[in-house]
């Protein structure tokens, strides 16, 4: 098989790429990486020195591709499938990329900050940083609630890379800082959870959810 995804089923950025792979239907091999295992971490760091997943290998082209957005852009270009993850129209592609950035940087990032703080030893908690992350999430929620309106997906009627980014970011964010009365966001997350690609990702992560530190 030409593609190998190095990932962990609980990781939001890996979920984002799994959604994209299931949307395109590209066949791939999976390699779960346990970063807590020193030997596995060291081997993985040879692929990508920052040792952050996901990383995709395309053996057919002898390429190693890190970073979830770059992986999805690569899939859209070289392994296209049923879902066009990046629109062909340049302006729509730019808007898709901006929304992907918003979900990665302004939802997934603060969400990770809050979650990883729970995993730190007591002496190393960062309450100031966590409060700031919560404020950032509230700003993102307010903006998304306004911009989503009653659109089906982040870009309107078509499912794109922006929705791949949105699905895990919003799924976890809503658990640690609930959307509250924001109906558009709540309905959008409901549609994402029912989308077969993300439903499959969540089902596959189910055995690992006990490891998630939660709300
Ligand atoms: N910008 C990266 C972020 C990747 C990332 O932060 N991955 C997390 C898991 S969701 C990770 O590998 N964390 C392990 C660590 O930092 O040691 C992407 O989009 O792929």
List keywords for this structure.
215 residues; alpha+beta; Glutaredoxin; Glutathione S-transferase Yfyf (Class Pi), Chain A, domain 2; four-stranded mixed beta sheet; 8 helices; 4 strands; 58% helix; globular; binds glutathione
Could you walk me through the main structural features you see in this protein, from its secondary elements to its overall organization?
- There is one protein chain.
- The protein is α+β, with helices and mostly antiparallel strands and 215 residues long.
- It has two domains: 76 residues, 3-Layer(aba) Sandwich (Glutaredoxin); 107 residues, Glutathione S-transferase Yfyf (Class Pi), Chain A, domain 2, CATH 1.20.1050.10.
- 58% of the residues lie in helices and 8% in strands.
- Strands 2-1-3-4 form a four-stranded mixed sheet, with helices on one face.
- Helix 1 runs antiparallel to helix 6 and helix 4 packs parallel to helix 6.
- The longest helix has 30 residues.
- The site of glutathione has 11 residues, from helix 1 and helix 3.
């Amino acid at each position: 098989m030409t593609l190998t995804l190095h990932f962990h089923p609980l990781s939001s950025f890996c979920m984002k790429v799994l959604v994209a792979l299931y949307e395109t239907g590209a066949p791939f091999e999976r390699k779960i990486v346990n970063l807590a295992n020193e030997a596995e971490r060291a081997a993985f760091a040879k692929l990508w020195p920052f040792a952050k997943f996901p990383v995709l290998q395309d053996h057919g082209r002898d390429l190693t591709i890190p970073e979830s957005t770059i992986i999805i852009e690569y899939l859209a270009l070289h392994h296209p499938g049923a879902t066009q993850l990046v629109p062909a129209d340049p302006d729509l592609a730019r808007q898709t990329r901006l929304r992907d950035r918003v979900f990665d940087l302004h939802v997934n990032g603060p969400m990770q900050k809050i979650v990883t703080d729970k995993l730190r030893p007591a002496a190393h908690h960062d309450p100031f940083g966590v409060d700031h992350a919560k404020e950032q999430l509230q700003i993102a929620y307010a903006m998304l609630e306004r911009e989503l309106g009653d659109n089906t997906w982040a870009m309107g009627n078509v499912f794109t890379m922006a929705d791949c980014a949105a699905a895990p970011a919003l799924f976890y964010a809503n658990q640690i800082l609930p959307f509250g009365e924001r109906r558009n966001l709540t309905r959008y997350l409901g549609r994402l959870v029912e989308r077969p690609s993300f439903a499959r990702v969540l089902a596959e992560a189910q055995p690992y959810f006990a490891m998630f530190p939660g709300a």
